[in-house]
Specification:
- The protein has about 150 residues and is mainly alpha-helical.
- It has one domain (about 1-150).
- The protein has eight helices and three strands.
- Helix 7 (about 120-130) packs antiparallel against helix 8 (about 135-145).
């Protein structure tokens, strides 16, 4: 199965075409415990993000040298040994510890897309090229984002 998946990804890379099904996301809620729908039993996932992870891992090392030049040391995503999943896990563990110890916890989440103007995708592609990312890589990322769609299943 993995060899077939690798072949599909390699073919898409060589042809320079990203199928629409790779751009579509379905966001669903998965209950970890069917009986108890309480805190700590819900996990949200997107089929798109799972597929995207599979597609991007082989090329992670391609963009890594360019990413480290411009990103801050505190960034967790797209960096070696610094997964955003680890940060989310730590935050969740901290929440659960506060609940167990009956301690108050205040958290603030800022939607930066609302707080600041959204960066245009065209500008992102130009920046990737400016910082020396290979044209093929930039073109494939651009193709992946063009026409992207998502829906939420309740």
């Amino acid at each position: 199965m993995f060899s077939r998946l690798h072949q599909l990804i390699t073919n898409a890379w060589e042809v320079g075409f990203v199928p629409q099904s790779w751009k579509d996301a379905r966001i669903v809620t998965i209950y970890k415990n069917v009986i108890e729908h309480t805190f700590g039993t819900i996990e949200e996932t997107s089929s798109f993000h799972r597929r995207q992870d599979l597609r991007h891992d082989p090329h992670q090392h391609t963009i890594y040298p360019y990413n480290t030049r411009v990103s801050s040391g505190t960034q967790c995503g797209f960096r070696g040994n610094r997964s955003t999943t680890d940060v989310i896990f730590c935050l969740r563990l901290f929440q659960e510890t506060c609940i167990e110890q009956d301690r108050q916890l205040y958290m603030v989440f800022i939607d930066f897309s609302k707080a600041f103007d959204t960066v245009g995708r065209t500008g992102l592609w130009q920046l990737l090229r400016k910082y020396g990312c290979p044209e093929k890589f930039t073109t494939m990322i651009e193709a992946l984002h063009t026409g992207m769609m998502a829906n939420v299943n309740v």
